[in-house]
Amino acid sequence: MKRNKHKIAIVGASGFTGSELTRLLASHPEVEIKHITSESHAGKAFSELHPQFLNIVDLTLEKADIIDTADLDIIFLALPHGVSMEFVGRWKDKNAKIIDLSGDFRLRSPAVYEAWYQKKHSFQEGFSNAVYGLPELTGEKVKSSQLIANPGCYPTASILSVAPLFANKLVENDTLIIDAKSGLTGAGIKASDTTHFSNVNENFKPYGIGSHRHTIEIEEQLSTLCEEGVTVQFTPHLLPVDRGILVTSYAKPKNEIDSEQLRKVYDDFYQEHPFIRIRDKAPSLKDVRGSHYCDIYPFWDSRTKRIISIAVIDNLLKGAASEAVHNMNLMLGIDQQTGLKQIPLKP
Amino acid sequence: MKRNKHKIAIVGASGFTGSELTRLLASHPEVEIKHITSESHAGKAFSELHPQFLNIVDLTLEKADIIDTADLDIIFLALPHGVSMEFVGRWKDKNAKIIDLSGDFRLRSPAVYEAWYQKKHSFQEGFSNAVYGLPELTGEKVKSSQLIANPGCYPTASILSVAPLFANKLVENDTLIIDAKSGLTGAGIKASDTTHFSNVNENFKPYGIGSHRHTIEIEEQLSTLCEEGVTVQFTPHLLPVDRGILVTSYAKPKNEIDSEQLRKVYDDFYQEHPFIRIRDKAPSLKDVRGSHYCDIYPFWDSRTKRIISIAVIDNLLKGAASEAVHNMNLMLGIDQQTGLKQIPLKP
Amino acid sequence: MKRNKHKIAIVGASGFTGSELTRLLASHPEVEIKHITSESHAGKAFSELHPQFLNIVDLTLEKADIIDTADLDIIFLALPHGVSMEFVGRWKDKNAKIIDLSGDFRLRSPAVYEAWYQKKHSFQEGFSNAVYGLPELTGEKVKSSQLIANPGCYPTASILSVAPLFANKLVENDTLIIDAKSGLTGAGIKASDTTHFSNVNENFKPYGIGSHRHTIEIEEQLSTLCEEGVTVQFTPHLLPVDRGILVTSYAKPKNEIDSEQLRKVYDDFYQEHPFIRIRDKAPSLKDVRGSHYCDIYPFWDSRTKRIISIAVIDNLLKGAASEAVHNMNLMLGIDQQTGLKQIPLKP
Amino acid sequence: MKRNKHKIAIVGASGFTGSELTRLLASHPEVEIKHITSESHAGKAFSELHPQFLNIVDLTLEKADIIDTADLDIIFLALPHGVSMEFVGRWKDKNAKIIDLSGDFRLRSPAVYEAWYQKKHSFQEGFSNAVYGLPELTGEKVKSSQLIANPGCYPTASILSVAPLFANKLVENDTLIIDAKSGLTGAGIKASDTTHFSNVNENFKPYGIGSHRHTIEIEEQLSTLCEEGVTVQFTPHLLPVDRGILVTSYAKPKNEIDSEQLRKVYDDFYQEHPFIRIRDKAPSLKDVRGSHYCDIYPFWDSRTKRIISIAVIDNLLKGAASEAVHNMNLMLGIDQQTGLKQIPLKP
């Protein structure tokens, strides 16, 4: 007998993350999309908004507050920061588990949130049961969670690039520098000077120097790993490409190490995690584009006594949509790789 | 009981087409890749050559002439023009059916081949049983064929853009102009001045004006459809993008038509063909990128009395690798959509 | 004794055209920029808006209606369609000559304007003395004009690509097809879905099929040349590059011609025009980027009996700002090449 | 009476640097190009090789060893590393001064050269009189030099980004990290896997981690400034753009500083240098593209107690060709800004 599929809803499908979630979930063998919502486009077909889905996903977009949540197993929130918290509060007593792709529940406390997001948090009790959903690090907790805070794109790549070092307490906790570079889709679908082609194309620049919100998210997770306070210098830059994040992380080891030992630390740490690939050479963005992989190249510079770790992900997938599906798989108790085996699209 | 999978080989896997074939076939539920060959990289792992496949396809590359063809069902030839014909000749008596992605058997006769490819053909008898494998037009013949000439990328988009017009004898046969634009991957993986980033990036130019080999391929197929000689003005241009072909076809109708009639001609013609999508607006390259779809927008210009038809495909997929898999599905008698349901990757 | 410099104003400097005008005029040895205006940024330094001008052009932006026009020789209007006409009307009795870069006075009559721009024209008397300022064709008239309608970017490339054919009445007047491709800056500086990086990058599409306003501008100018009505099929496409237009023009000769004759027609027609370069091979966008050149490659296809002419320009320069400076030079009676000798920037 | 122009030769004009030198020098009011050489293209017109120069620079390319050096004032060597040294040796007794754009004489000694370039040096005596030609730092020495070692592109941006800090001995000399990103033209004009469009476009990756030759060049120059040994962690990355380098430099101050003090350090240091612009916000590549400017944004992060300095240049100009012209101006005793006032080309 055929197993019933799990029922899911995607709330907020007009942006890139919502569109990518829909792409993955429409092909996922164990779930059925019951609702896709968009406040500004309700009534239109999803494929009218995103014509690449014509004849594939033609569901009608609904308004979020009228969907029937009664029989849903999972609700994905692909909403802006500050909007997600409203829906988490509203639906807190429903049966459906929530995977929130915004930054609203990623940090340790409302106070930290308000300091870095400069915004009052309207559903503070959510912090008590939210689980930070980075499967390679927190997968066990994810399995039994009701509310997942899906990690930010930069934090996913940044944390994974150095997690083995911090978990093994091998590096200093106040000299880490993460120089990060992201494709433009990280800036969202909304038209602005930032996203104007002529400002991005053939161009490159840093932004948010010393103040980007993802800094604290990275610091908190690395602190949890090494059980000490961690200070990170995090500098994001904008690449003239659609997809992909590459981070170049510079860490100072407490004691000297060698290349072979370093490699073993990474191999051991990620041994059970099929979506992490430890590489022999520096990876490039396209090695993982369109996939759930995170490729990592740890390098020991014996001249400067510094560890450099390069990590690449697809920011819309491992840094957002496929990470959410990975979390969903864990929450539903199905094989974690289900629906996530897309081979990178290169070139 | 589990059905046995069909056994296939991919001959020539160092290029883009071979790599894309491998990507599709590694995820295809009904086939098993037995051999992947590369003359220049034999002995290496496939994933060493194409690192995006690490931990996914790590098969060792072999030399083509030593693979055991005895138990193979299908052999894909992803080889340069002029090399394919050698292998077709060598393996003509094997059980395995051959799908040739080169241009060696696409034309009507050795004489036409030699005129347009300026090269002697070494296996002329192949022309007698080769079938031009454009499933939407020649699918029935493909099913029982032993040798498929997989269409060129430009001809796929070009022919599909106007096939309903020629099949219905609606347009003049000597005024068709096809202004075509292709992404750089059409030029292949080999480093050259043509593929140097600085010559392509932020640039655009036509090439092969009046003399491109795909001209005759288009003319022959359209002639077959309308049962008359057809002359085509075909002008290809090089776009600074990786993937995608867009053709702008200008046809002069024999009799006046209107928008609704025109749309109906296309809807009717492609009614049974799930990978052709007739659009209400002009499509863009990314609407089909990473997929097997061909999106077509037919437009009637009542001011100039001309039909303009826009078609887009992913040149490496519908224009090469996924077209080959589509042909394979037909030859193996399995559902034509198997392994080809990838949703376009956008953005 | 040092000659006094001519005094000019640039009205509307927040966009790409205004910025390019400023770049050219700031380096022009015979003029002095007295005013630069921007309604939305008045009070700021020009270099605050366009930081590439820091320490070079730090003039304060003014509101257009308060500048003193009394001692100005030339006023450039780099304003949107529909706004220019207001200023032309307001300043019609001033001494300053006006070069209008908008479409407001390019067409033959207010009626034609209103039909193609779907907008009421508020200064209809302007049409009586406006001169279409394409120096290679109308340079003599430009010299004595008070009001120049600076050509559109597409019309500049399109008209120049075939002007020798129409001026010599060599081609049919109702079968011309111009398939045009433009960089994104043609869409302007305003953020919109059209200009969002993710919609442009790695993408390509046609737009305005059968209805683009530049169609009538091209038709009118070619009609003037051949002294007959001309119908043009004009299809613009959007390229994922910043700058450049390439047009592929398809013309049917009345009588057969050969390659040598064709070349001579072009050489003769443009003999006195230093910014037109007749090429032996198809040019590419970067061959003229950052310069005032228009490179043209006329090709005779003896198989199809058709002439194909390829022309490339920098849309912001020869298609807008440098064209305006060229017109200015003619109006001021100085050497036409002054300030326009920039060598193309490639790569 | 008109002053005689200085006579120069460009040796090695087939690459990007040679082509850019020619572009600048052809427009330079005080010099005359007497010879342009290319071993592989001798006999062709320069504009046949670089068609953007058609009708502008049509000089015939010569072989280097046959040019008459007798009346030359300056010879530019735009040759590969290892080839330049041969010509410097051969022409050491000529009157002409030499500006060498290769890496052959940039380092302190033949021994250092051989360690980092893994190549025997064939003209070791050249080191004794070669001057490292970074005008803002070594301009006085340049004026009287016979042999200029023109800086590398990365070192130009890297050194300028932190020179005020090291010259004032404000920062630690063993914790500097320079995370650098360059456009593809830095890889040269030769076709290779590295320069293949499909490997660069939509991609990004680091290379030469821990071992790039420019590391030692940066270390030596900073050591000279602070009169102590300096160790630099230098990591270059390849951007999918034609032109531009952006460096993100992380320095640890010996004593705490504040934003205002930091800004003053930079303003004071570069006060006399018109091509350095200290910015209030992070610059982007296009702010300097096509120009000789280096824009720098120094930032004090009070949370991490670290100085971050962002610098951008056009790698082919300030990082190569215009730097060479700047050195030439100093050597010829003419105004240093002559021929270098191009305003950045943006967008």
From TrEMBL, chains A, B, C, D:
GO molecular function: N-acetyl-gamma-glutamyl-phosphate reductase activity; NAD binding; NADP+ binding
Catalytic reaction annotation: N-acetyl-L-glutamate 5-semialdehyde + phosphate + NADP(+) = N-acetyl-L-glutamyl 5-phosphate + NADPH + H(+)
Protein EC: 1.2.1.38
Principal subcellular localization: cytoplasm
Keywords: Amino-acid biosynthesis, Arginine biosynthesis, Cytoplasm, NADP, Oxidoreductase
Keyword Thylakoid attached: no
Entry annotation: catalytic residues: C153
Enzyme class: oxidoreductase
GO CC entries: cytoplasm
Subcellular location: Cytoplasm
All residue ranges annotated as the Semialdehyde dehydrogenase NAD-binding domain in the record: 7-145
A Gene Ontology biological process term: L-arginine biosynthetic process
Source domain of life: Bacteria
InterPro entries reported in the protein's UniProt record: AGPR, AGPR_AS, AGPR_dimerisation_dom, AGPR_type-1, Semialdehyde_DH_NAD-bd
Pathway stated in the Swiss-Prot or TrEMBL entry: Amino-acid biosynthesis; L-arginine biosynthesis; N(2)-acetyl-L-ornithine from L-glutamate: step 3/4
NCBIfam families: argC (TIGR01850)
Sequence similarity: Belongs to the NAGSA dehydrogenase family. Type 1 subfamily.
Record's function text: Catalyzes the NADPH-dependent reduction of N-acetyl-5-glutamyl phosphate to yield N-acetyl-L-glutamate 5-semialdehyde.
Protein's recorded name: N-acetyl-gamma-glutamyl-phosphate reductase
